[in-house]
Amino acid sequence: MLKSLLREPLVHFLLLGAALFGADAWLRPATPAGATEVVVSEARIRSLAQNFRRTWQRAPTAEELDGLVAAHVREEILYREALALGLDRDDAIIRRRLQQKMEFVADEAAAMARPTDEELEKYLEAHAEAFQVEPRATFRQVFLDPRKRGDALATDARRLADLLNGTGSTLDPASLGDGLTLLDARYENASQTDVARQFGREFAEAVVKQPVGRWAGPVTSGYGAHLVKVESLTPGRLPTLNEARPLLEREWMDARRKDLANAYYEKLRAKYKVTVANPEATPR
Q1: CA atoms within 13 A on the CB side of 228
Q2: What is the pTM of this model?
């Protein structure tokens, strides 16, 4: 029971929050508003020195450490006086900063949680579309200009496809089309996204559904119409856990971070009675 409870992310969240606030209280002893004594503890001095060392990659000199302590005392006094004057109230920037610090606790709790393979498998199944490996195709295309061919486009497309598919055909496909220098005659191992970027989404969706090894069409694109021969096709699929692991872990942890933040907020929200004025009843 205890072991199961300790695995719960919300328990990690609450324990981490308590630890962070406890550390802050240790380093910055609580002082009643208006008190006139500032105590700089040994723990605080060590913390100031460590921060300096991380920034400058060396220990502070005695003079520099005195300056750090003096700056801390100045910050503490001005902070207390600002609180005494109520400058923290109704300040949007301070409110947002405090909100961010509370949300930081949830982020840290999420960072502590590491997903099991079983959890990643479930997340992959639940969000299969986001991780899908795209189909890839190697294909040839012949451009047919609808403006030139008009009502004969569909008939011309079928006739040309039959010629190209004929037994022993030696026809050059490019000689049968209407030519468009913007396009290549052949695309090799192109992903559906790459094809869509070049020809449009509807064309890309149609290409990966064409029979392999035969000319077919017309297939419509943003340019007009095309005869298409798919030479090889790699269907889309769901990746294996190992293939998707880096992205999958990142997405899982981001989702867990949001879940923890929402769970923590709902726990806090339950402590409050919230009354929202009716706008219609507010005088204009």
Answers
A1: 28
A2: 0.49
